[in-house]
Amino acid sequence: MPGNAPGPQPICEAVDLGDPSPCEGPRDAVTVVDRHGHSTKACVPHGIRLHASLTDAHVLPGSVPGADTEVRELSRATSAFAWLDHHQPFAEDER
């Protein structure tokens, strides 16, 4: 039995189909709520990207204390749809 082979890693609800970045930490670290009231559980990195990509969204606490504040603050410095090459923030040495 190939029980030693790792299975596919679960991803959080916030991952966009075009975003190749893996989840980090709990998949329910925060909940991002859009302006229509739809909520999405997210790991911190994908919560940041989702919040940065939505208009009038807010972030609620999840399973990680303080992660909601981190997502709100870091999303301000993140481009909308940051996983697209032309929206990637510049590295320090490229500025």
Question: What can you see in these coordinates?
Answer:
Helix 1 (44-53) packs across helix 2. The protein has a domain at 30-78. The termini are far apart. It has helices spanning 44-53, 67-75; strands spanning 30-33, 39-42, 58-61. 25% of the residues are buried. It has 95 residues and is an alpha+beta fold.
| Low-confidence sequence ranges | 87-95
Strand content: 5-15%
The secondary-structure class comes to alpha+beta
* Order of H and E elements: EEHEH
The largest sheet is: 3 strands, antiparallel
* Coarse morphology: globular
What is the spatial order of strands in the main beta sheet? 2-1-3
Count the beta strands. Answer: 3
Radius of gyration over alpha carbons?
15 Å
Q: Tell me the distance between the termini.
A: 52 Å
Q: Helix tally? A: 2
Mean of the pLDDT scores? 85
The percentage helix is 10-25%
What is this structure's SSE topology?
Layout: E1 30-33, E2 39-42, H1 44-53, E3 58-61, H2 67-75
Antiparallel strand pairs: 1-2, 1-3
